[in-house]
Amino acid sequence: MRGSFQLMKSVNKKAVLNKIRLHGPISRANIAKETGLTPPTVTNIVKELIEEFFVKESHLGESSGGRKPTLLHLNEDGYYVIGVDAGSNTIEAAVCNIYGHALLRSENKIPKTIDSEPFLNIMIQTIRTLLEDETVQPDKIIGIGVAMHGVMNIEEGISYYSSNSGLKNVPVKSELEKEFGYEVKLENNSRALALGEFWFGGFEHVNRFCAINVGRGVGSGLVVNGKLIHGPQYVAGEIGHTVISVGGDLCTCGNRGCLETFVSGGSIVKRAKEQINHAPNSLTAEDVYHYAVEGNEDYIRVLEETGYYLSIGLLNLINTENPDTIVLGGGVMRSAEFLMPILLKNIREKALTHKLRDEVNILVGKLDDDATLLGAAALLFNEYF
Ligand SMILES: [Zn+2]
């Protein structure tokens, strides 16, 4: 494998590195105090971390008269990851640093129907464009993270099935590793979005974190104690296919009345057309939002209903998983101004206990369209920190 990045074998070293990541800029003395390690041990480990390009010194600390203390923070130029977001229409890739900044980007369109081999060729080309740019040294790249819609085996890095594109059994990991020689990790797009928000959205201190991707479908990801939860069949936390109306509309999964059939972009359009006389035939979910912004009460009502339905799904999740924080992302959340007031009101009224109602934190993600891409990059960082 290319790259000089080594797994953190020492528990103490990992503890110091994570202290700096989560609490930096921080002094050596405070690291010792907060980790319980002796000051000489911390000094030795920090020396190694600086030599290995993980950590940097700065002199910005508060001074109480004398010399300013030296503080430590992560080295933003130490290592990079290539994140790849393979969406329905495009494959986007970026070189990202440990702070979630994308230094270089490339993007290619993909046809609506496509087979595995041409799909992988477009992905390889998108990544190759980044590597041909000489801004980033190839040996500073520690691997490639790929996010894709659908069901996948993350150990073997095979995407089994995607209902969006019809792709089946795509051997993403083996093909990209053969092509580029970097370690490759594959993840479902909604789980990647969750990891992206967790790592780079300011939630890295949350113990039970959940993110929900509300777009063409409804996907979700749970991050517990810093790690994505999958379950033995990789469906942990999939609230999009929990049933909220017995005998309801047919869902893409084959069941009826799933949350997804109430809140996905397509279902918002379907409801708007059913409820609103003279709704244009070509109506899209974006149009619904724009009409609502213009003050059209009918469209506002459709979006408010969507917020209510989403709150029912979230209540199921809140009452079963008891997350500290839920972040909502994806295209539908661009209508957050119409969805959120009703959603929050219903949860504050109906979550199982009063403490839960008061304390569960529900908000809209900050990373917008980049959450999945950055989450794909975080797949590799998450491995080592
Ligand atoms: Zn379903």
TrEMBL record:
Q: Which Pfam families match?
A: HTH_24, ROK
- Asked if the Swiss-Prot or TrEMBL record annotates the protein with the keyword Ribosomal protein, the reply is no
Query: In its UniProt record, which GO terms are filed under biological process?
Result: D-xylose metabolic process; regulation of DNA-templated transcription
User: Which PROSITE patterns does this UniProt record tie to the protein?
Assistant: ROK
Q: Which residues form the HTH crp-type domain?
A: 18-73
Keywords, A to Z, come to: Carbohydrate metabolism, Xylose metabolism
Q: InterPro entries recorded for this chain?
A: ATPase_NBD, HTH_CRP, ROK, ROK_cs, WH-like_DNA-bd_sf, WH_DNA-bd_sf
**The family this protein is said to belong to:** Belongs to the ROK (NagC/XylR) family.
> What does this protein do, in the record's words?
Transcriptional repressor of xylose-utilizing enzymes.
Provide the protein name: Transcriptional regulator, MarR family
Q: Which organism is it from?
A: Atopostipes suicloacalis DSM 15692
